Amino acid sequence: MDEGEGMGVNGMSGGGPGDPLITTTAVAVVDADGLITYWSQGAQDLLGYSAADVVRHPARALLRSRDPTAAMSRLRRSARVGNAVVTVRHRAGHAVRLTVRVCPLMAADGRRDWLVLGAGVPAGAPPETHATATAPADADTTGTAPTGTGAGRPSPVVTRQTRRTFSGQPQVTVALAPPRHGRTGRLGRERTRPRSFFPLHDSAGRTLGICYAARDVTVQDPTRERLVLLNAASEHIGTTLDLDRTVHEFAEVAVPQLADFVAIDLLDVATTGKGPPTRSPGGPVTLRRAAHLSIHPSLPKVIAEVGEPIRYPPGSLQNRCLATGEPSREALGPGTPWLPDDPVRWTGINRFGVHTHLVLPLRARGVTMGVVTLLRWENPDPFTEDDQLLIEDLVARAAVCVDNARRFAREHQAALTLQTSLLPPNLPPHNAVEVAHRYLPADAESGVGGDWFDVIPLSGARVALVVGDVIGHGLHAAASMGRLRAAVQTLADLDQSPDELLAHVNDLVMRLSDEAEAAAEGPAAAGATCVYAIYDPIARTMAVARAGHPTPAVAHLTEPVEFPDIPAGPPLGLGGLPFESAEIPLEEGSVVALYTDGLIQTSDQDVDVGIERLCFALAHPDRPLEEICDIMVRALLSDRPRDDVAFLVARTRVLSPDRVASWHVPADPSAVRVVRDDVSDRLSQWNLDELAFTTELIVSELVTNAIRHAQAPINLRLIHERTLICEVSDGGHTSPHLRRARSTDEGGRGLFLVAQLAQRWGTRYTGSGKTIWAEQPLPAEI
């Protein structure tokens, strides 16, 4: 390349493959006749010529050019333009490419001399050098200010330093300049420029002018650059445990600081609740684009969520990276072997002029979760080994954050699965009540808590309504809640009264706490509160007992909202005091609300305010229950409640009297035939003739047992609900049980036959005795 052939970037140009690695700055003065009058030690170090070799010799003799005279003319013209690139002959005979700047100097005698500044630069990451010559105040000279101070005029700082330098003392300062290439971004920073000012003297010692040199040394501190970037990345990546947000944060760090485009593709196993494979995949794999970011405005910035499947050709770096677990970088061009198999990507690469790419595995804790692809086209430099090492560190940090997010998602899913299995997925429909509910855990991210609700069908067309609250939050409270809910359901099947049921649950909580404390694991259920209510649609009453729990609210159709006086038992797990039940009469259409204390007692309101707002939400019980639930949430809860909240809203129904038939049975065996005939007639009225035979047999066995083994009064009741229910009540308290009768026994087979004919059967105790009941499914067409 001849002199004047091209201009260097920011005044600098790297040497060719054979050029020596030179960074020394040369200073020379050439007079109007083209003779060298001054030759600095830096020039001697750079080109090998001593001052005695070149002073008073033509400067063009040093240029390697076919027309040295024309080359000198072009160099002088470059004083109005900026730096030029020239090729100079070294004393040893080889060529040295220099970036030079030529500045005019007007001597005292009116002659125009020329100040020539030159420097050679390393081939990789060259520093930027700018030089300006400044003449005395009475000299006619044109100086050029460094980049950023304005073309063709020195900056105020340069002027001040120039005046000081005329005293004969060199001046050294440090200046800051904006980041290079306009890549400020989140991680951009200012560049450091040391500046030197020194006087220029001729052979007679006269001051010809001032030389000003600035050198950008920011790029000479790659370790600091790397630490700054890594520190910024550590603060920006992994601010949440959300997988989508984490990959987006990494993309924002990579572009434009490191690449012009970045794509993060994840394996399916990294985006699901399943654990990823312990070994890198070796065959074809399916990836999903999680995020990508580009400096080009036509490309989308990020992806809202993990997208559609994406596949790479077999020979691509992405597949190779997944198979080996090692990073790869590659220049892109027509010779790239796998590109012809991927015309879509080949078109995009040609469109933007992508010249190189780098692919790294997204790997943490021995697991490969995907790949990261980086491309460059605006940045003319290919990815170097140093670039790769830096990006590997960033990807490793991002991979840990992605793995943390993946593990959190898996644990979150496990917690939600546990919670879903512990709470009723769908409340069963029941003729006695219409229900709606809400469950709002305080830990919204995990979605689990210790509150629960339940609707349990009971015998005799009755239904149990339950709401409970385990002390604490999160997974531990949810596990304890599951135990208590299972215990309540089991005890409810025994048809115990509300106060008896709570007493048994209290014993269970105390035992579980003792066991956990003995195992040094902390209390499994440190305490809980609960309200248990049984609604009877035939008697139109509700029996309620509570253990340290708020009183249910009852919204009547024609009266204000009521909070019945239910005896307050102690919380579950404390023991000591007994539990008591109270019975409340309810009209059809009344709305009963059972709730945890998190609904009415929050950090920004006391209980009285919560009660008033609950009355407001229940003021119109004729509204749809789902609408009532929504009003309760809006009126009583903040966006992020600090306590778990669960509530159950039930609208009462009654069973029509024509669906119930009752008989008093004398304690006489002959009464069995009469009762059987009455039952058959009633089944005909209900169009249940298909059930007549089995029902008569069940009635015969139960009534006969009551006459033989129990005591008066004996009563029979048939209930036509979702099933056909047969109940026989007596004054005894002895529970019948199944037994295997011997072949010689004349009796003992009654309950066995009942169990074979009925869908369900059981016994419940009352204050005056017991009731044995049996249910049969209705015919399909009924």
Task: Describe the fold and architecture.
With about 775 residues, the chain is α+β, with helices and mostly antiparallel strands. The strands form six sheets. Strands 12-11-10-15-14-13 form a six-stranded antiparallel β-sheet, with helices on both faces. A hairpin with a 2-residue loop joins strand 14 and strand 15. Helix 5 packs parallel to helix 9 (about 385-420), helix 6 runs antiparallel to helix 9 and helix 15 packs antiparallel against helix 16 (about 750-755). The longest helix is centred in the middle third of the chain and has 38 residues, at about 385-420. The radius of gyration is 46 Å and the shape is elongated. The chain starts with about 25 loop residues before the first strand and ends in a 5-residue tail after the last strand. Mean pLDDT is about 75; it is low at about 1-25, about 125-155, about 180-190, about 275-280 and about 745.
